[in-house]
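Re: your question from the hallway

Yes, I did run it. Sequences:
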Amino acid sequence: MIKAKKSLGQNFLIDSNVITKILNTVNIFDQSILEIGPGTGNLTQKILKKNPKKIIVIEKDDKLALLLKKNFGSKIEIINKDVLKVNEKLLHNERLIVFGNLPYNISTEILCKWILNIKNQNFWFSHLILMFQKEVADRIIALPDSKNYGRLSIISNWKLYIKKICDVKPSSFSPKPKIDSTILYFEPKQNFFKLNNSKSLEKITRIFFNHRRKMIKKPYNLLFNKNLEIAKKLNINLNLRPQNLDFETYFKLADELEKLSC
Ligand code: SAH
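Structure:
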C-alpha cells in the first residue's frame, strides 16, 4: 500500500466516472501522450487501454516511479524528475496530448511556464487536459468584467483556447483533498497576438492588477510616463478598473510597452 505524500500533493483519483470523462475529451488511439504526476497509474492504465502510439510519464516521487516501472514495464517511458525541471520541447518529436492531475501547489507555475515558453507557434503539445484546484480554474477561465478575471485569465487566453470539462468533488480522490477541483481542456491558438517578449504582458498585468479596485489611471501613468496618446489610440478610459479591460487591450498595451523600451 502506498502512503500518500502531502508534500507532493498526492491525492489519487479513484473515481472511474471522472477518469472516463478525462479520457473522453480527446482521441487517444495512435497519439503520443504525456502524463504529469501519474502517481499509482490509475489514469495511465486506462490510457494504455486506448492504444496510444506512445506514453511518456513524468513522476517526481522515486517510490512511485519504481512502482510504475514494476506495473507497466516497457509499455511506458518513465521520467523520474521534477516536471518543472524538464524541457518539454525535447521530450518527443511529435505534438503531445498532455494529461495531468497536477499537484495543486505547482499547477499555476507549470501552466504559466508552458505558455510563456512557447515561441512563434511552436507548440510541443496539441491538447492539455489538466486538473486544478477549482478556485484556480475559475481564475483561468474568467472573462472580463468578472471578479475572478486577472493575470491568470489574460496569460492563459493569450495562447490557448480554454474549455471547462467538469468540477470534481473531494470524494473522487484518496486521500480526500479539502477543496473542490476542476478539469480544464486547452488547445493552442494558431494565431495568437505577437509580442516580442512575454515579460511585457506579465509586467502590464502585474502592475495593473496590483490594485484591483482602483482606477487604472495610476498604474497606466507609472508604466507609460503619463503619455496619454497611447490610451487615446487604444480607446482606453483611464477611470475604469483593471477587470474592465478585455484580453486584446492587455495584449495591445504590452505591445506598446515593448515599443517604448526599444
Ligand atoms: N495522477 C494521479 C496522481 C495525482 S497526485 C492520479 O490521479 O491518481 C499528484 C502526482 O504528482 C503525484 O504522483 C506526485 O508524486 C506527483 N508530483 C508532485 N510534484 C511533482 C513534480 N514537481 N513533478 C512531477 N510529479 C510530481
